[in-house]
Design a protein that fits this description.
It is a single chain. With 158 residues, the chain is α+β, with helices and mostly antiparallel strands. Strands 2-1-6-5-4-3 form a six-stranded mixed sheet.
């Protein structure tokens, strides 16, 4: 099942997965109207351990360092009002022109056709490696070890 297969337009109130698909359309397009349609007024989510309110999420989805975005749903589970999706996000980093693929998980609670709360994690390390910010492969192990040793030594001297 891919995001491209998702119905466009207003998501049916009785189908939590359709609401989440529509939400992911918002991330793919940056379309504020989609977020206004599917997010409850008191919506919040937690991404990478940080709580975001509705306005912050919408601002992040509209701007940013990436364009040519797409989101596909690789797997979905619906249990009552909770939807869990495993996603693959593809986007172009504007500054470098590099295409980046990032997998992730999104959990959302849908009440009366609106997402009230959400939680998510995405492979940011993989994203940073694709952008060349962090090394990958065997180089990554050495790079991380150097920083862990440096960090533990500086903590002992302070």
């Amino acid at each position: 099942m891919t995001q491209q297969d998702a119905p466009h337009g207003i998501a049916p109130h009785g189908d939590p997965l359709a609401v989440v698909r529509r939400y992911l359309d918002g991330w793919a397009t940056g379309d504020r109207a989609i977020f206004e349609e599917v997010l409850a007024p008191d919506f919040y989510d937690v991404m990478y351990g940080q709580r975001r309110d509705r306005a912050t999420l919408i601002a992040q989805a509209q701007g940013g360092d990436f364009d040519e975005r797409s989101v596909s749903i690789d797997e979905a589970v619906v249990l009552g009002d909770t939807v869990v999706v495993r996603t693959t996000n593809r986007h172009r980093h504007v500054a470098t022109g590099r295409m980046v693929t990032m997998t992730g998980m999104v959990w959302a609670r849908v009440v009366d056709g609106k997402i009230t709360t959400g939680w998510g994690e995405h492979d940011r390390l993989g994203q940073l490696q694709q952008l060349g910010v962090v090394p990958s492969g065997s180089e990554a192990q050495r790079w991380i070890q150097e920083r862990l040793v440096d960090s533990s030594e500086s903590n002992r001297t302070t």
